[in-house]
Amino acid sequence: MNEKGVPEDLKGKDKIVFGNIHQIYEWHKNYFLGELEKCIEEPERLAELFIKH
């Protein structure tokens, strides 16, 4: 994260910012994806889903 465009206060903090990326991925894979797929049949649930999570 030492590239141009990265705010100074975030430089060198990539482990803090992305330290739980595996947990985020697992949550999306195991929970959120299923909830999104339900919105195919009930698209009116989509906005509520994003507000809730």
Largest sheet: none
Overall average pLDDT: 88
Shape: elongated
Helix count, DSSP H or I runs of 4 or more residues: 3
Structural class: mainly alpha
| Proportion of beta-strand residues | under 5%
Unreliable stretches, pLDDT < 50, 5 or more residues?
none
SS elements, strand count: 0
Terminal CA distance: 27 Å
Q: Indicate the radius of gyration in whole angstroms.
A: 16 Å
* N-to-C series of helices and strands: HHH
The helix fraction, in percent, is 55-70%
Keywords: Guanine-nucleotide releasing factor
GO molecular function: guanyl-nucleotide exchange factor activity
Domain DH: 1-53
Organism: Scyliorhinus torazame (Cloudy catshark)
How would you concisely characterize the structure shown here?
This is DH domain-containing protein. This protein is mainly alpha-helical and 53 residues long. It has three helices and no strands.
Overall description:
62% of the residues lie in helices and 0% in strands. With 53 residues, it is mainly alpha-helical. The chain is elongated. The chain starts with 13 loop residues before the first helix and ends with a helix. The mean pLDDT is 88.
Question: Can you lay out the helices and strands and say which pair or pack?
Answer:
Blueprint: H1 14-18, H2 21-41, H3 46-52
